[in-house]
Amino acid sequence: MEVFASIQGEGAFVGEPQVFLRLFGCPLRCRWCDTPGSWKVPATGEARIARPAGARREPCWAGAFQAACWIAECEPGSPRSVSVTGGEPLAWPDFILALAPLLGGRRLHLETAGAHPRTLARVLTVCDHVSLDLKPELDLDAPEELRSVEAGQAQAFAGADERSPRTKEEWQRARTACLRLVAGRDACAKIVVSGAREARDFTPLLDELEECAPALALYLTPATPVNGVPAPSRELVESVAEMARDRDLAVRVVPQVHRMLALP
Ligand code: SF4
To answer: Ligand 1: distance of its center to the CA of 78 in Å?
Structure first.
């Protein structure tokens, strides 16, 4: 969908200049999604390649080698870590596996919603950092599975054969499996706190973290009030942080820095 250099706005590497590789395709339907334009995979379309000399458009269907070249083109200086984001990058496990050895030593950071543990397990060994974006169930609408858009592109989806969770129990199983996979690795969990939620809505996520990955760094992200997303009150953020501390979780509250700085 796009390749651009910016500053990481969330999670354990907040503030780090990185290159972002945003992939089309997401079967999930988070209510506060800030990139709904990434949901559908277009049969034909363009990717935005934001080079320091100026952005240009390229056909969006690209292999790992092409993507690695674009990453190098978009770096304004020396090599940066690469944040693979979406969409849901786990829609493209074969692409991620092919990209990793082409990054010339750059770190590969994966941003994922933690809904597809079997696929996460496949790509984990090539990821230098995993950021699990955990969602309260009330923030999720029913998923819509990705479809191969043309017969010729069916092969590209061959690796993405894991159904998305639908029920509360399926979500719980997916999240806990993902948390167990990243426990003890270079990883973090993020939870966006919006003003539409109450503190108790976060109890299941915090309980799962305590049970499956108690040492994982947890970043609470107060939602930025844009596009109709309600900002949380100070009291709500403090309550959720305290609930995390009660469980001995390593919690930090960090606002969305890219929003504050109006960065892409
Ligand atoms: S997983 Fe990410 S891209 Fe997909 S709906 Fe949720 S926020 Fe949007």
So the answer is: 30
Question: Of all protein residues, whose CA lies closest to atom 3 belonging to ligand 1?
Answer: 87
List of residues 6+ apart from 54 with CB closer than 8 A: none
Q: In angstroms, rounded to a whole number, what is the distance separating the alpha carbons of residues 198 and 205? A: 13
CATH of domain 2-260: 3.20.20.70
| Alpha-helix runs per DSSP H in the chain | 64-74, 93-99, 117-123, 168-182, 203-212, 234-246, 257-260
Joined tokens for residue 83: 């944040």
**pLDDT tens-digit profile of 73-101?**
999 999 999 999 999 999 999 999 999 99
Q: Are 189 and 213 in contact (CB under 8 A)?
A: yes
d(CA 104, ligand 1 centre) in Å? 29
Pocket of ligand 1 (CB under 6 A): 26, 28-30, 33, 35, 38, 86-88, 113
Residue ranges for the chain with pLDDT beneath 50: 150-152, 154-156, 158
d(CA 240, CA 242): 5
The ranges assigned to domains in the chain are 2-260
For residue 239, how far is its CA from the centre of ligand 1 (angstroms)?
A: 25
Q: What is the pLDDT of residues 96-118, one digit of tens each?
A: 999 999 999 999 999 999 999 99
Say if residues 93 and 123 touch (Cβ distance below 8 Å): yes
The distance from CA 125 to its chain's CA centroid, rounded to whole angstroms, is: 17
Give the sign of the dihedral formed by CA 234, CA 235, CA 239, CA 240. Answer: negative
pLDDT in tens, 10-31: 999 999 999 999 999 999 999 8
- The tokens for 88 are 């849901």
